[in-house]
Design brief:
- It comes from Micromonospora humidisoli.
- This is Acyl-CoA carboxylase subunit epsilon.
- About 25% of the residues lie in helices and about 0% in strands.
- It contains two helices and no strands.
C-alpha cells in the first residue's frame, strides 16, 4: 500500500463530517494495542465475606441486600 492510498473509503452514501470523525475514532480505538486491564474495585455487590446461607435481616436497606449474590 502506498502513502497516497486511503486507509478506507466510503462506498455507499454521503456521510457527514461528524459521521466520518466517529468512524475514524472507532477505527483508531480498535487498532490500538490492548492495555492492562482496569483495576478491580471492591463493592458491596462483589463482597464475598457474607455467610453463604445467611438471609438479609429485616430493616433499612434489606431490599438492596436481598439482590446481592450469596
Amino acid at each position: 500500500m502506498s502513502a497516497e492510498e486511503p486507509l478506507f473509503r466510503v462506498v455507499r452514501g454521503v456521510p457527514t463530517a461528524e459521521e466520518l470523525a466517529a468512524l475514524v475514532g472507532a477505527i483508531a480505538l480498535r487498532s490500538r494495542p490492548a492495555g492492562p486491564p482496569p483495576p478491580v474495585t471492591k463493592s458491596t455487590w462483589a463482597h464475598r465475606a457474607r455467610p453463604a446461607g445467611a438471609a438479609p435481616a429485616p430493616g433499612r436497606g434489606a431490599w438492596r441486600v436481598s439482590g446481592l449474590p450469596r
